[in-house]
Structures are given as structure tokens and as C-alpha cells.
């Protein structure tokens, strides 16, 4: 019987090792004119929004479970810049702002995630999610081909991407994030920015792609999004 008893811990260790390999294995996420392609398979995915700061971490598991039971494949959320950097250079990812914990909960329930970084966001969120202190930066013009704005946008976007990478949360690293979004429905306001609009779109796409997440970026409702950024509509 000694043999039998010894056998279990060994099998258990083997199972854990296999699970670790399965969890860590990367997914290949690409797309064509029809859909996203995950590991060579065209996927029709249904996504639903859960905005993490609107609820507490204790509520996240049941909210995500309800979405899953309702047939949702992807949990999408905006990233809320004015929650995470309320004062310039002072970051907050505690409590209901714990983005990493939220994405890990999505992963734990076997769903995909779509991270809509923006950092300009909608969804009736105050000031488009932009921190108020941005207003005091000399010469700044939001969402335009404007160096002070682009500097702050790149800094925040890079920080969020690096935070996700450090936790191996991109599908390219075995994580749940199959898509991230840069800007947000910009096409609807682009004309108001005159000649500052199109170069900003090109810059935003290039900046995002340069962050090398290993999964596609999308520009929601930007039908002329520069390649390789996806331009299709996301549900909201
Ligand atoms: C990823 O998938 C695409 C499309 O199915 C394919 O062309 C590409 O070779 C794949 N890349 C890897 C590294 O497997």
C-alpha cells in the first residue's frame, strides 16, 4: 500500500506541471476580413462590458459568472485613466481599481478579455476618463496631433500594457487578453480636429502596435484604421 500512497503525490505533481504548461501556452490571435482567428480557427465571439471600478472586487466573480452563463465569450472593459492617475504621477490600482485582479478573474472563469485602453473613453464616465490635471499642461490639446497630449497618452498606455505583460495576461503569453483598443470612436469627432486628426490616428496606431502585445489592436468605429489595427465595430 506504500506504493499506492506514494503514487498519488507524484501523479498530482505531474497534473500540476501539465496544468502549468497548459496555462502558460500562448494563443495565436490574428484576424482577417471575416473575424478574429484564434489558433487557426475563425471565431464568432460575443462580448459584454463589465467596468471594474463600478463594482467591488468581491462582486467580480459573480458578475463574470453571470456573463458566462448568459453566453458571453469575452469580457470587455475600458481602462479608467482618471481613476488610476488621479494626480500626475501618482498611481492607484487598489480596491475596485485593481485591473490585474479583474483580468485574472476573467481568466479564472475561462473567458477572454478585451482591454479598451483608450485612454479617452465614453460610457458616461466623467471627462472621458481623462484626468483633470491634464488640463493644466501648457499647450495641451486632447486627442489630437499634439506633443504634450501624445506624451501623456503614450506614457499611460505603455504603463498599462507593461502591467499586463508583467502578469502574462496577453493571449500571446497564455493570458486571456485577445484584443486591446487604442482611442475610441474617434472617427465620429475626427473632422473637428481638422488637419490634426489623421496624423493623430496614424500616430496612435503606430504607438500601440509598437508596444508589441502579440495580439491585435482595434480602433473602435475607425473604418480607416491604419494596418495592422482592426477597424471593426465592437459592441458596447
Ligand atoms: C498564427 O495564425 C495565423 C493565421 O491563422 C498564421 O498565418 C500564422 O502562421 C500563425 N502564427 C504562428 C506563430 O503560429
Structural class, please?
A: alpha/beta
Order of strands in the sheet with most strands: 4-5-6-7-8
Helix percent band: 25-40%
Q: What general form does the structure show?
A: globular
Report on the biggest sheet: 5 strands, parallel
What does this structure look like?
- It is a single chain.
- The radius of gyration is 20 Å and the shape is globular.
- It contains 6 helices and 8 strands, in the order H-E-E-E-E-H-E-H-H-E-H-E-H-E.
- The longest helix is centred in the first third of the chain and has 23 residues, at 2-24.
- Strand 7 (177-182), helix 6 and strand 8 form a beta-alpha-beta unit.
- The protein has a 5-stranded parallel sheet. A 3-stranded antiparallel sheet has the order 1-2-3, with no helix packed on it.
- With 236 residues, it is α/β, with parallel strands linked by helices.
- It is 34% helix and 14% strand.
- Helix 5 (147-166) packs parallel to helix 6.
- Residues 28, 30, 37, 40 line the site of 2-acetamido-2-deoxy-beta-D-glucopyranose.
Keywords:
alpha/beta; 236 residues; 8 strands; five-stranded parallel β-sheet; disordered N terminus; binds 2-acetamido-2-deoxy-beta-D-glucopyranose; single chain
Give the SSE layout:
Elements: H1 2-24, E1 29-31, E2 36-38, E3 41-43, E4 47-49, H2 60-69, E5 74-78, H3 81-84, H4 99-108, E6 112-118, H5 147-166, E7 177-182, H6 197-209, E8 217-218
Helix pairs in contact: 5-6
This protein binds 2-acetamido-2-deoxy-beta-D-glucopyranose (NAG).
Residues 28, 30, 37, 40 line the site of 2-acetamido-2-deoxy-beta-D-glucopyranose (NAG).
Amino acid at each position: 500500500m506504500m506504493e499506492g500512497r506514494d503514487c498519488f503525490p507524484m501523479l498530482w505533481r505531474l497534473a500540476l506541471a501539465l496544468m502549468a504548461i497548459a496555462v502558460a501556452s500562448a494563443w495565436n490571435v490574428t484576424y482577417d476580413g471575416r473575424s478574429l482567428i484564434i489558433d487557426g480557427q475563425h471565431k464568432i465571439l460575443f462580448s459584454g462590458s463589465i467596468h471594474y471600478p463600478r463594482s467591488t472586487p468581491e462582486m467580480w466573480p459573480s458578475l463574470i459568472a453571470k456573463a458566462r452563463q448568459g453566453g458571453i465569450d469575452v469580457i470587455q472593459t475600458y481602462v479608467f485613466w482618471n481613476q488610476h492617475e488621479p494626480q500626475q504621477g501618482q498611481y492607484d490600482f487598489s480596491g475596485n481599481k485593481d485591473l490585474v485582479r479583474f483580468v485574472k478573474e476573467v481568466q479564472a472563469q475561462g473567458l477572454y478579455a478585451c482591454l479598451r485602453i483608450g485612454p479617452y473613453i465614453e460610457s458616461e464616465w466623467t471627462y472621458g476618463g481623462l484626468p483633470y490635471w491634464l488640463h493644466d499642461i501648457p499647450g495641451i490639446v486632447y486627442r489630437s496631433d499634439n506633443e504634450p497630449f501624445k506624451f501623456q497618452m503614450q506614457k499611460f498606455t505603455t504603463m498599462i500594457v507593461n502591467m499586463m505583460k508583467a502578469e502574462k495576461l496577453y493571449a500571446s503569453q497564455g493570458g486571456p487578453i485577445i484584443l486591446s483598443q487604442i482611442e475610441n470612436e474617434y472617427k465620429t469627432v475626427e473632422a473637428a480636429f481638422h488637419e490634426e486628426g489623421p496624423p493623430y490616428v496614424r500616430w496612435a496606431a503606430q504607438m500601440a502596435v509598437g508596444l508589441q502585445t502579440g495580439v491585435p489592436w482595434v480602433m473602435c468605429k475607425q473604418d480607416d484604421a491604419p494596418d495592422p489595427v482592426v477597424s471593426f465595430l465592437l459592441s458596447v
